[in-house]
From TrEMBL:
<dbReference type="InterPro" id="IPR013833">
    <property type="entry name" value="Cyt_c_oxidase_su3_a-hlx"/>
</dbReference>
<keyword id="KW-1133">Transmembrane helix</keyword>
<feature type="transmembrane region" description="Helical">
    <location>
        <begin position="31"/>
        <end position="52"/>
    </location>
</feature>
<dbReference type="GO" id="GO:0019646">
    <property type="term" value="P:aerobic electron transport chain"/>
</dbReference>
<feature type="transmembrane region" description="Helical">
    <location>
        <begin position="72"/>
        <end position="89"/>
    </location>
</feature>
<dbReference type="InterPro" id="IPR035973">
    <property type="entry name" value="Cyt_c_oxidase_su3-like_sf"/>
</dbReference>
<feature type="transmembrane region" description="Helical">
    <location>
        <begin position="141"/>
        <end position="165"/>
    </location>
</feature>
<protein>
    <recommendedName>
        <fullName>Oxidase aa(3) subunit 3</fullName>
    </recommendedName>
</protein>
<keyword id="KW-0560">Oxidoreductase</keyword>
<dbReference type="InterPro" id="IPR024791">
    <property type="entry name" value="Cyt_c/ubiquinol_Oxase_su3"/>
</dbReference>
<feature type="transmembrane region" description="Helical">
    <location>
        <begin position="101"/>
        <end position="121"/>
    </location>
</feature>
<feature type="compositionally biased region" description="Polar residues">
    <location>
        <begin position="1"/>
        <end position="13"/>
    </location>
</feature>
<feature type="domain" description="Heme-copper oxidase subunit III family profile">
    <location>
        <begin position="32"/>
        <end position="205"/>
    </location>
</feature>
<dbReference type="GO" id="GO:0016491">
    <property type="term" value="F:oxidoreductase activity"/>
</dbReference>
<dbReference type="Pfam" id="PF00510">
    <property type="entry name" value="COX3"/>
</dbReference>
<feature type="transmembrane region" description="Helical">
    <location>
        <begin position="186"/>
        <end position="204"/>
    </location>
</feature>
<comment type="similarity">
    <text>Belongs to the cytochrome c oxidase subunit 3 family.</text>
</comment>
Length: 205
């Protein structure tokens, strides 16, 4: 019957499932949600950093007498690895924006290896430190800060590996659909920035 077909109103946007810009024509707020989550995570770290600075201010001698001096070489190398890995990961996002899935897999794979090296370096430092979790207030603060950050690195590593796993499916990531890549990169940058602050407070000051 002529004229009976329902026509799409002017100005509506057809569904584009999985499109980077949104779902079914609606704005995509997933990345904003990730950002809010990281703000909440940042508040936890800021609380730990504030506590560390308060301890440093009120304790007469900081670190307390008898605390072994922290080595800078290994943490410094770890810092270089983590900072560099953020640039490496960003090249992966640049690659997928050009529909280069192989490039995404290469750069995210290198990032994952760098993340593993960072965690191994941190564990090596733990096993060779001449202080334990309950040695004194500085030691407790040190293990709380570095351990909590290491937990976040581990989660970021899992996100990176998840992207690599999903990229095996043809068409899962493309220049039009790469939210998972963006989310993993944003989280990794967060972990990177937190470590820089931690390194300055704990190792350099």
């Amino acid at each position: 019957m002529q004229g009976s077909a329902i026509q799409q109103p002017q100005g509506t946007v057809p569904e584009q499932g999985g499109h980077h810009g949104g779902h079914g024509g609606h704005p995509d707020h997933r990345l904003f949600g990730i950002a809010l989550f990281l703000v909440a995570e940042s508040s936890i770290f800021m609380g730990l950093f504030a506590a560390f600075l308060i301890y440093r201010t009120v304790v007469p001698v900081w670190p307390p007498e008898g605390t072994p001096e922290l080595e800078l070489l290994l943490p410094g190398i770890n810092t270089l690895i983590l900072v560099t890995s953020s640039f490496v990961m960003h090249k992966g996002q640049d690659a997928i924006k050009k529909n280069d899935v192989s490039g995404l897999q290469l750069w995210f794979g290198i990032t994952a290896v760098m993340g593993v090296i960072f965690l191994i370096g941190q564990m090596y430092e733990y096993f060779h430190l001449e202080m334990g979790l309950t040695t004194n207030l500085f030691a407790s603060s040190f293990y709380a800060l570095t351990g909590f950050h290491g937990l976040h690195v581990s989660f970021g590593l899992l996100l990176t590996l998840a992207v690599l796993w999903r990229s095996r499916k043809p068409g899962h990531y493309s220049s039009e659909s790469f939210f998972g890549v963006e989310a993993a990169e944003l989280y990794w940058h967060f972990v990177d920035v937190i470590w820089i602050i931690l390194f300055i407070l704990v190792y350099l000051l």
